[in-house]
Amino acid sequence: MPASGKILIADDEVDFTAVTADLLREEGYECDCAADAQFAGELLKKNQYDLLVSDIKMPGNDGLEFIEELPALAPGLPVILVTGYPALDTAIKATRLSVVGYMQKPTPIDDFIKLVRESVVRAQTFRMLDVTRDRLQSMQSALGSVTSLKTYAPGKTSFVDVDMFLHHTMQNMLASMIDLKDLMQALSQNKSKQNACQLLNCPRHAELLDMIRDAIMVLEKTKHSFRSKELAALRFRLEKAFKPNAA
Description:
Blueprint: E1 6-10, H1 14-26, E2 30-34, H2 37-46, E3 51-55, H3 65-73, E4 79-83, H4 88-94, E5 99-104, H5 109-144, H6 159-188, H7 193-200, H8 206-221, H9 229-242
Parallel strand pairs: 1-2, 1-3, 3-4, 4-5
Helix pairs in contact: 5-6, 5-8, 8-9
């Protein structure tokens, strides 16, 4: 059974690290452990994690300098800070960083697991959004090339070439739609459908919607050039998804 996510625990307290790692592994997560900021940084360079659970007072992070440098090592990685010595200055400083939780040791197990689950799902969701965005950008470029095939030039472009191009474009488009479907399912496991839709429409990823609308426009413009039932059906599905009242 695949792990639910991959978590890095950075803490110089051996007992806390061992207990926390065992707890998270029982919940289905894969865990790596580091006793100081230097080793944690090396692990972050080699592996992709969904969450960092970090102590505040461990070597190399006394002033949260390790957390401040985190965006350069792992952009967007969420962090849960844990400490046996809570202080107002570190709590205030944490609010300016990519910290999703600030918890005092010993951490309440139920609250900790809930925060871990939410943070991992969110990190995986946004990573999926980034992958889908890149794929849609590539697809948009490919669809733009369809217009150049509207005029068939004997000896230069064969129908076989056109069919292969359209087949490849269709495969990329369908793969992108599957990615979006998986994204919605991942979100729905952690949030309501309404919140999932709000996330997809957030300004950070508005370009996703723009690119899919561009795909609809290209398919509309080329519908008389390529009489493909598959392309027509795909255009209808896209229009229905973004224009619920479309015929």
